[in-house]
């Protein structure tokens, strides 16, 4: 059977001599090409071209089978022009990725990886992940695995997944293992965010406690500082109003000396945490019981000291991270407020 020779658009304005190589593809079709172009783009094709022939007069032929002829035409067009149309990527993206990998055309491989990544769906992700593994495309493989993990219920119902389960149990195992690790990472990340949120709230509570004891606010303030008795909620800290209510309760609770109620114990814990966070070792700190707790820490080595020190470090770290996330101007304003924060140790109820 005589091959059917087709002429293709090389997608370039350059003038070429007569073709000296033919690519034979499926359905008995051959494509005329130029050895110099192929050899300059693909080392694999260069090796094919340089192979000795049986007869000098015989044609130089390169066999490319297993992919549609139109995909080979798109592949050859890229070798000449370094361009690939969106239509060709839609129809033959997977075939072009395989060809670019086999014939070592890195520019086309990058283009195919990006194109296939943009076109990933639950219907084609199983086919693409298998091809990505075979073609050494780790970025595309990772994107496929993430899509599988996030949409596994939808993927599980596709024909591609059912075929995979029957014919490639090792890849199925890899995917299920990745999904399990992905869920574990999500749980750890969620737990970490919750913990960081708690530490940030405690950090703000420490700042708010210093603000109340040094400057005073709407309900509570130091004895020798005139506080404007505005009954509007404090706008500096979201925890300020609740902390003031807690301090008022702590000052008037009849159970405080006998161990206190739940709210009193919470206030004691805040005072104690402040003593671990506070860097002032003299009597200049304005927060009540700060120096007493510090002296008690030096005199007595309690079993829970390590836990409190660890909590203090995490609260301090959360404060730093929170300040870094603020805009620079607001960060500078908070620093000035902190440096000019003067007051006395005791406070009164307003």
Automatic annotation (TrEMBL):
Compartmental location: Endomembrane system
Pathway, per record: Protein modification; protein ubiquitination
GO function terms (MF aspect): calmodulin binding; zinc ion binding
Primary localization class, coarse: membrane
Membrane topology: Peripheral membrane protein
Key words of the record: Metal-binding, Ubl conjugation pathway, Zinc, Zinc-finger
Pfam families associated with the record: BTB, zf-TAZ
Alphabetical list of InterPro entries matching this protein: BT1/2/3/4/5 (IPR044513), BTB/POZ_dom (IPR000210), SKP1/BTB/POZ_sf (IPR011333), TAZ_dom_sf (IPR035898), Znf_TAZ (IPR000197)
Gene Ontology, cellular component aspect: endomembrane system; nucleus
Record Gene3D superfamilies: 1.25.40.420, Potassium Channel Kv1.1, Chain A, TAZ domain
KW Zinc (keyword) present: yes
Domain annotation BTB: ranges: 19-88
One of the GO BP terms on file: response to hormone
This protein's name: BTB domain-containing protein
Lineage: Eukaryota, Viridiplantae, Streptophyta, Embryophyta, Tracheophyta
